[in-house]
Specification:
CATH architecture: 2-Layer Sandwich
Distance between the termini: 35 Å
Shape: globular
Radius of gyration: 13 Å
Strand content: 15-25%
CATH topology: Beta Polymerase, domain 2
Helix content: 25-40%
CATH superfamily: Beta Polymerase, domain 2
Structural class: alpha+beta
Largest sheet: 4 strands, mixed
Number of strands: 4
Order of helices and strands: HEHEHHEHHE
Number of helices: 6
Length: 108
């Protein structure tokens, strides 16, 4: 069964909104939408890579605010490159799957 396609203008809107909210080094769409297997209930899974010292639980707030009018569910995770490096080779870690199956939408 084919997934619901996400329109390129929507992806561009997401990237532009995220760029106004912070200084991401990379934005990756992952999960069912990136794999082309999304359904009407699917959300946008976004990994934002950013060089920050802020605690992980506070990092996504400005990005969530930037996408609040998107009208579609989203899950935004913000990781540093150091954290990704530490976890990327751990079997069954979500970051491994996100990096392997994800679609890079933006890279500085």
């Amino acid at each position: 069964m084919a997934g619901i396609k996400i329109a390129e203008p929507t992806l561009q809107e997401i990237v532009q909104s995220l760029l106004t909210a912070g200084r991401p080094d990379k934005i990756i769409l992952f999960g069912s939408t990136a794999r082309g297997q999304s359904t009407i209930e699917s959300d946008y899974d976004l990994l934002v890579v950013e060089n920050t010292e802020q605690p992980r639980h506070l990092r996504a707030a400005p990005y969530r605010r930037a996408l609040k009018n998107l009208g579609h569910p989203k899950d935004i995770l913000v990781w540093t490159m150091r954290e990704i490096t530490e976890w990327q080779n751990v079997p069954n870690a979500f970051i491994t799957t996100a990096l392997r199956e994800g679609r890079t939408l933006y890279e500085r």
